[in-house]
């Protein structure tokens, strides 16, 4: 995935959790996500975005 592929409203997964993109800072390559459960915002670097079609929260369990 390229940095230019990221857009506001996109669902993304990261090492910090998953959420909806609310803001993109191109100068620092930082992406701001809103948590799907409680709408709290958090920031992640572009390099921490997980290229996975399934976005999971930290609390999710894998079987």
What would you say this structure looks like, in words?
This protein is an all-beta fold. It has one domain: SH3 type barrels. Helix content is 0%, strand content 41%. The protein contains no helices and five strands. It has a five-stranded antiparallel β-sheet with strand order 4-3-2-1-5, with no helix packed on it. It is globular and about 25 Å long.
What is shown here, in short?
The chain has strands spanning 11-14, 17-25, 30-35, 41-45, 49-50.
Question: Helices, strands, pairings?
Answer:
Elements: E1 11-14, E2 17-25, E3 30-35, E4 41-45, E5 49-50
Antiparallel strand pairs: 1-2, 1-5, 2-3, 3-4
The count of domains is 1
* Shape by Cα distribution: globular
What name does the CATH topology carry?
A: SH3 type barrels
Q: Structural class from helices and strands?
A: mainly beta
* SS strand fraction: 35-45%
> How many helices?
0
Distance between the termini: 27 Å
CATH architecture: Roll
State mean pLDDT (0 to 100 scale): 82
Mind telling me the C-alpha Rg?
11 Å
Strand count, sense and barrel status of the largest sheet are: 5 strands, antiparallel
Order of helices and strands: EEEEE
Low-confidence stretches: none
Tell me how many strands there are: 5
CATH class descriptor name = Mainly Beta
